[in-house]
Amino acid sequence: MEKQLPQPGWRYRHFKGGLYQIVTLALNTETGEDMVVYQALYDDFKVYVRPLSMFLSETDFVKYPDSTQPMRFERIDAEDDRNVPKPLETTSCEPSFEETTEELPDGISPKLIAFLDADSDEERYTILNEMEDIVDDHMIDTMAVVSDLVIEDGPISQRFQELKRCIRTRIQYESKRFPRHIS
């Protein structure tokens, strides 16, 4: 049986029991090695990077004799997702937009346009927090594409929360990777 490459959004169980979601596949610029970027679906939702070959490897039963899972990471079905914890909700202290019912000529929400024009994930996240009552599947798809994310089909509220979680995670991850220096 040929191993499938992990895809963004796929969820896996580690042989020690932790649940993880694939963020993306990457390439190590120094070694050329394929890497897997994945996020814990528990505690503080940390993001990890591991070589693809190691991610797809078998469990070392010599080192871990009590393990019952043959592979280091096993993909889990959508049914198993019911037990995946959801991240805690956060509130924003950013100023809010003025309420408006004005629609743009094509029926596009001004808040969606603001999201699409935002210069940073922090700005997108602030705008997104104010869109919960007006968001629909098409808007989520549009925002996901612009944010370079994959949001699986499902109930709108679940997709909306997943979009928020992904952007919040990227904010957390990128701020550690590229800290801002104040002059």
Q: What structural class results from the helix and strand content? A: alpha+beta
- Characterize the largest beta sheet: strand count, sense, and whether it forms a barrel: 5 strands, antiparallel
- Count the beta strands: 5
**CATH class bucket of the largest domain:** Mainly Beta
Total count of domains: 2
CATH superfamily of the largest domain: DUF1653-like domain
Mean pLDDT: 80
What best-fitting shape do the alpha-carbon axes yield? elongated
Between the first and last Cα atoms, what is the distance in angstroms?
Answer: 56 Å
Percent of residues in β-strands: 15-25%
Task: Explain what this protein looks like in three dimensions.
There is one protein chain. The chain is an alpha+beta fold. Helices cover 29% and strands 15% of the residues. It folds into 2 domains: 11-83, DUF1653-like domain (SH3 type barrels, Roll); 110-177, no CATH class. The protein has helices at 52-55, 110-117, 121-129, 137-146, 156-177, and strands spanning 11-14, 19-27, 34-40, 47-51, 73-75. A 5-stranded antiparallel β-sheet has the order 4-3-2-1-5. The longest helix is centred in the C-terminal third of the chain and has 22 residues, at 156-177. The radius of gyration is 19 Å and the shape is elongated. The chain starts with 10 loop residues before the first strand and ends in a 6-residue tail after the last helix.
